[in-house]
Amino acid sequence: MTIKLYDYSLSGSCYKVRLLLHFLDLHYEKQQIDFYPGRQHKSLDFLQINPLGQIPALEDDGLQLRDAQAILCHLANKYDGSGRWLPRDERHFGAVMMWVMFAGGELMSASAARLHDALGYKLDINAARASAHAAFRILDDHMTLREIEGAKWIVGDHPTIADIACFPYVALSGDGGIGHEDYPALRNWMRNFRRLPRFHAMSGVPEYV
Amino acid sequence: MAVTTDSVALNEWVPCGWLGQVPLGGQMDTVIFGQKISITRSDDDCYRVETLPEDGSSGRQLPVQTRYCCIFTTLGEAKRPLPEIAEFDEPDRRVTGCGSVGVNTSPYRLVENFLDMAHFSFIHTDILGAPDRTEVLAYKTEHRKDVDEIWAIDCTFYQPAASKASATGQMTQYVYRVMSPFSVMLYKNVHCDPTRNDAICVFIQPKGETECLAYMPMAIVDENSSTADLIDFQQSIFLQDRVILENQRPALLPLDPTYELPTRADASSIAYRRWLKAMNIKFGIYEKQAA
Does A196 touch chain B (CB under 8 A)? Predict the structure, then answer.
């Protein structure tokens, strides 16, 4: 059995998958994609792997998957014997999935701002930053409430794939000109996340939050 | 910003795109020194660059050169040619552009960061530096008057993973070379062949005083790594630098030697700033505020 990740080091979405692979201590093969400037994710060869032309993509024992969020669910479902990364009980499952979807949806505005500033993508940067701030506000309010309840993680008493899915584009937002000044609960949460065993940073994740 | 009036800056060659960025028969707009310009590509290696005046009048055609994976132009009368970098002509070299990366700071902050070895252990931990081996050993700087370039020679630093080809740590020998206010490069000894040097450049397109695009062409000796891996390594290093670059204050570069206090490890930065001061460049320079 081999897991193969179609990867680009600077992609926050690929980083989500790398984080979980590390947390679960899974061995995997990495296929580097020349995302920029080569746009290899739009090449005919890669479109056979993911017709949407997006990274990450994952192959696992004949299964071919796209979408960072779906891949997180798959890896946690198959390999996490503890069940903590993706809790199945009715009190937690739905809430975890809700924030996982938020990470793949609203939070991606922070990714767009980063692509604009660092890699020169043509898009409405003010709209991207405003949407990202609105999404950060929602998550910061949630984490403030969680702090009042004495909790550290987005859902439940343990870190879940919701935390993994949300961490990269919150942590990397400075790359897109979005500061963390107004989000004290997010800063506390990021500090806790960084302290997890087997955590590793990627380029652009600030050392001090 | 308005177009700069600083003739020292205007007279330099600067990159304005990477080869392959403008499609064949296509066109791209960008900015240098606050001036909007348009690049059109009519053939494989045939580019035309002209200014795009704000009032819609017809632009002025600018000189163009393509080298080192980049399109270069100048708004003034270039006083110095593009630098000669012989490594890019060696047949077995992996010559790779890495696109361009946007950085919101002055171009000189980028050059200084590229020259600096003291940050390796802290910003590029376990790659270009180790947390327990942080010392920058003494090195020499020179102003080579014949070519009007700043060089730093006899630089050495312990590196756990000096390049994509590295399997073990090594004492890496560096030579740094500042070819213009907006371009810098290094030579570092190749992991598998100590007689040869990898050549890695940064050419900077100043869009405004604190808004740049950095181009990182390199000529590497490495038979094994894929192009995607070589680019990934270089970009990963650069995005680690980008975080600290955008957090330096002031973003403009102070040339007053009392404003920022250098240490001995900053000898190359001191030489660079003196050189900038002597050429009386004003664009992107921090002017002391009246008390």
Answer: no
